[in-house]
Amino acid sequence: MVKLCRHTGRKNPPVSETVWRGLLQDLLDMQQNVYTCLKPEICHQVFVESLLCSSSVENVRLAGQLMHCSKVSQDVPVSLSFRGKSYALKVAYDNSVELVLAAAREYFNSSTTLTDPCMGLARACLQLITDCPLAVQDELDLISALGQLEHFSVSILPLQVRLRSNRLSLIEKCIADCPTAYKQSTTLLHLASLLRVAGDDKAARKGQVLTLLAEQALRCRDFKASYIHCQDLMAAGYSPAWDVCSQLGQCEGYGDLEARQELLAFSLTHCPPDNIHGLLAASSDLQTQVLYQAVNYQMEPVITESGREADETDSAKACAPSAGSPVGTAGDLLHRTTAKTMKVLTTTGLTTKAVLTAVSDHRWWKESLNYLRPLQGHDAGASSQEGACENSNLERQGCSPFYQEVIDDPYVDLSQDVYSSYKDVPQENFAEVLLRTGKLAETKTEGQTLFPATEVLLQLANDAFPRDMMLALSYLLALPQVLDANRCFEKQCHSALSLQLAAYYYSLQIYSHLTPCFKNKNHTLYQADPKELIRLVTHHVSAYSDWPEELQKLINQLRMYNERLTDFTQAQVLQGLGRGVDVQRFSSDSDYKKETILGLTETLDDGVYKIALSLAKRYSVPLWEVYMTHLEFLFTDSGLSTKDIETRSGSLSLFDTLKCDPQAFYSHMTKYVLPTVEGTDQSRLLYYYTLLDAAGCEPYVTTTIKPDSHVRLLKKLRAVANGLNYRKLTDESLDPLATLQPVLTSQNVLSISKLANRLPVPGGGGATVSPSAVHAVWLQKLFWKGDPHLLKRPPQNDQDYLHAYDTCVKYLDRLIPVDAVRFLDSITFSPDAAEHLSIQARSEVLKRATKSLRQLGEKSKKRGGDGSGEQEGTDPAGMTFDEAIAHLQQSQAHLDTLSHAFILSLKDSQQHYSQLYDLSRSERSKVHELAVTMATDGQPMERIGELLRVAVGPLDLSVKTVLCDAVERVVSALSGDPDTLTDYPQPLGVLEAMVTAVHNNVQSGDSAVTSDDLLAWLHPFCGDASLPVRPRIDVLQILESNFSLQDSDVRLLLLYRTQAVLKDREVQIEDVENEEKRYALFLELLEAAQKWEDFQQLMLLLQAWPPMMKEEVAQSERNPWVVLTSALLTHCQGSEVTLDLDQQVVTMVRSLYNTKHKLPAQCIRHITTLLLQSQPSLQQPALKLMAESGDEQLLQLTLDQINSMTAETSSSCDAELLSLLLDAGLLVGCVSSTLYPLLSSHMLSHQQERGWDVEKAAAELLAAGHGPEAGSLLLAHRGTHQAQFTFNSALAVLRKWL
């Protein structure tokens, strides 16, 4: 049966389904009739097997109809064609599976390639079983795997695939043949699943494949992809992956330090024991890098002195560490960091990259740790600082959130609270990073490299203080040197907590010194109540004094912080007073403490005052200063009356202490108290001077009036002179009489005059005020303003003033002659007298006064004296009555001159002079001053002479002496005297007015003052080489413009002018005395000139000199201006100096037009020739100079140049040149040139402003035979449209308009 079926299956061409059906029926018949020993099911199996192995898809489908394809399938008829006598049987399910698997494997094993057609037959066979049991699925997966292997270009026989015991090697082959296989992890994992790598252990299968992929990605330096695979491996907990994780974790080329740290942590967990040591070292180094990255520092490759090769070597080692050193170059990180690493910590301006850019030295921790601090406040460090600012005053105890329940009113930094809600772990600040890194370094070297942690611990403690005080204390207790903690404590804001913590720290240290604690046990010392510990230690150390030096330093610190705590407590008491005391500053600043205590004494509150006294005693503030401050307060700001001040001072016994130091008392009172006392508060002043007198301050008083004299004066003046400003009265720089006058009356003048001899006269050399002088100022007041008892109404007219005088004269006998004269002058020759009294009234007063003084003089003689020294305090002048009468007679004679015609004319025209003369009393000094004023005002000489002739008395003045004095004052002002400059701010104008007046006087034939006199007076000034040159030149020019100077003065003027220009060169008068020498000096300077400033100086020099007069120089090329132009063109062309050369030459020539230096036409021709020959760009300035010269020859040369111009040159001509050509009347001559269109257009555009006559110009053009041009000009002038400008229309308008 088998052979029969197989034979049918091998027929070619294949038989049809009918033949197969017939064969099956034949087989069944044979079984029934011949092979009864066989079961019908066997026949079916043989038949189906043959169909499956017939290599025909149709037969395979037919076989499927004859099999049970699933366990749950029902027995249904196969096909109508098979229905006969009975239903045909189907192959049982289990047999069907075996048949399908056998056929599929036969097809699979016979395939020669992965894509052989037999694979399709095998798959078709297997797919007949619809519920796909495990064995069938394995075969299907194996067939699918062949397609994946083909995708990865793996060349292998299918049978080899089936027979390969290590299916993982196929995955390795795929990865080896495909460089980017690691990016196809899903595909490869699926392939591994199809191949049943690691059998049914899916975890092992995934781990093996991902390990291979991670290794390939690492080899390709795709660290990110490798890490992704490693992450999956770590997540799956696949232990054998520790090796690839270790390789990636140690690879320095991979910059994700946290990822590398995670990888190394996994490696350490799963590696064999022999590898732990190396991985620990690598992990330590990596943790260091992670710590740096925590504060945003970046690692960069190092460029060493050996060059880039070292870098490449490092890179190679990074990814392929040797077996002997699994750490690779990362293991050397701690040994490749220089002092720059730490130095950058202070330099806030450096970038974060700089930290590790020069890692080349193993002495990381041994240098420059003191550079840590300034980094704080930036980046990560700043966050903790900002978070702590809320508790920056340390008023509350900061603590970790974990302990907040066990502390009263704690401060919890929200940024550190990780318990209330989940958030990221707070970022470490730099000091924490540095400490951890340093300890890692210690660990790495097994303690051989000690980390100097002081600076870091201090910084950490400083940062932790507001956030967690116990943490801060822990950091400080870890310090190698105990006293270093002071640097941290001193930075903290002083509060009760911070000061107690400092005391607690030193108490712990002292106790542990005295009773060492075992570090391996929890000592009860650290569990004791801090306050009790501080009290116990303080008491113990105070009981003895002979402590070791090291311990004594700690004891001193403990005492200091206990003192500060006491201060702070006191300061809080002060703060409770509401006086604005800064508690923290009070406890730390001794100066502020003293000022605060003294400030508290400035109060009337007895409670506060007592607190201030107790504080002063506590802090050793001198009691004298406390009392002095309080007394000063009573005088200045208390608002108490003098009587109340006296009462309070006595009740507090201030004075008993203050008088112990009279010098300091006097100094303080005069400096701070006296300036605040009102001058009119006589009661307060009396108490002030009473205190000075009682304190015995007299030896230290520098003023003339001593305290006892003040007391006596005030007691008497207080009764008679209410409202008197006593401070002004006794001010030795002020006139006491002026202070007295407002309060003097007929009732008190006698009393006050008796006290006057105690008042010093300003600048009197010890002289005092006389009673006579007091009466004199009172009489002045009486005369002008009246008196409540004697003259109730102030005088209004001459009659009133004469009556007032009659009242005053009754008291004239109380005045000595000099005071009498002073009084009489004040009522006859003062501005008030000149304004309010007529000359007749003043004359009458003088007559009556003369008579009165004569009578008083006779009485005096009868008593046997001259009347000059009767009263104490007499004037040093010692005037007699006879001298006084003579003085009045002089006054009378002067009044008589006021009616002189000259004085009357002054009154009409120059009232100022008239008033000055009126008040002068013909006194020599005043008349002289008036005459000098008139001279400096430029008044004519004859008026000054007339003034001197009118004045009476032996004046001994002349016009010449007056003018000489006036010139002397002006010269003083010119010389820079500040006092004289105030009177004559414009001295040259004053001098010019005086010289003009003298000139006019000389012209009129008067020889009282001549030019020689003026020259003689001014010559010393002009010849003084120490004075500035400019004013001396101005003076000589003023003289030159008014008088004919002598040759010597002319030469002097020339020398001064030369010196004024040549400031840097010493010039003698011989160098400039004639024209030849001046020309020689000019040529010498010109030869030395190199830059533009030198040529400018030469231009100024030529202008300062007279023009060259010799014809061979002035009219030739040797003219200095021509020579200067030539040199200027030679030196300045092409020089580095940016210079508008053409404009400078034109400006230079034009500046001479209206001066005596104006150049003749011949010289202008030479200059323009130089310009034209120099360079083409200088043609325009040459044309401008020729056009405005007015010289016929030069104008003709101008036309020649214009007619030879090209169109391009013409277009560059500026408006100034066009205007000059039109002004010179050169329009007709330019008709044939390329410039004519521009000229005519310019004329039409600017005819009104420049005044050009267009019709006249057209007539000239017509006369010259240029009819069309003339007509066109007229058409344009009349506004005709351009389209009508034709030859015929131009000729037509000529006949009509001209």
From TrEMBL:
It is found in: Endoplasmic reticulum. InterPro entries: NBAS_C, Sec39_domain. Residues 854-877 are annotated as: Disordered. Residues 856-865 have a biased composition (Basic and acidic residues). GO terms for biological process: protein transport; retrograde vesicle-mediated transport, Golgi to endoplasmic reticulum. Its main location: endoplasmic reticulum. GO terms for cellular component: Dsl1/NZR complex. Residues 94-289 form the Sec39 domain. GO terms for molecular function: SNARE binding. The keyword Metal-binding does not apply. Residues 922-1045 form the NBAS subunit of NRZ tethering complex C-terminal domain. Keywords: Endoplasmic reticulum, Protein transport, Transport. Pfam families: NBAS_11th, Sec39. This is Neuroblastoma-amplified sequence Neuroblastoma-amplified gene protein-like protein. It comes from Larimichthys crocea.
